[in-house]
Amino acid sequence: MKKLVVLSGAGMSAESGIPTFRDMGGLWEKYDVTEVASPQAWHSNPELVLRFYNERRKKLLESKPNRGHEILAELEKDFKVEIVTQNVDDLHERAGSTNVLHLHGELRKVRSTKNPNLVHQLDGWELKMGDLCQEGSQLRPHIVWFGESVPLLSVADEIVSSADILVVVGTSLNVYPAAGLINSVQHNTPIYVIDPGQPNVSASDRITIIKKGASEGLEELKSYLEAI
Questions:
Q1: Which residues are catalytic?
Q2: What is the pTM of this model?
């Protein structure tokens, strides 16, 4: 069974109504999103940061996987599918995908501010000041903030380098370091890029660009894969 690796980004979940940072116009209320998604923001105004993520979490719980998520889950019947996602939502899992790596963290999880290895699933959507882990420290969103390292990047690199087929969907490959993962693929591995805009990659003998949205593009990809 061939190994199909998927790199997914914000455009994947946009069809489920999950707004991207760009869709927010760069602003959340009167704040730039980078000002509520950074260690500096957490230290200066943790209540504001919690409210930002509580609102995102509440929106996520009201959202459902779209057809694109479902197609990726269905492909597990014929391929060993591994998904490396920049998204912090759990829509891939809720659609049925069983092997998902979240590069930038997970919105429905929280972790200790002192021990990053203490990670818990959050019941409901609200995290408040005073919510503590078992060691007594404040819990924070389990998110990789602007300015923080991406601890699972090396794991993602290994996954991509072992792909028999690479699919890029919902990302224009402009956000680093995640965008650099495409360079880890083996030189003879076919790559399919699904993006209705202008992805940061050019078509070639082994790179096929499908200029469609996530769900529509994945439907087309599915027909390509059935012919392999």
A1: 104
A2: 0.94
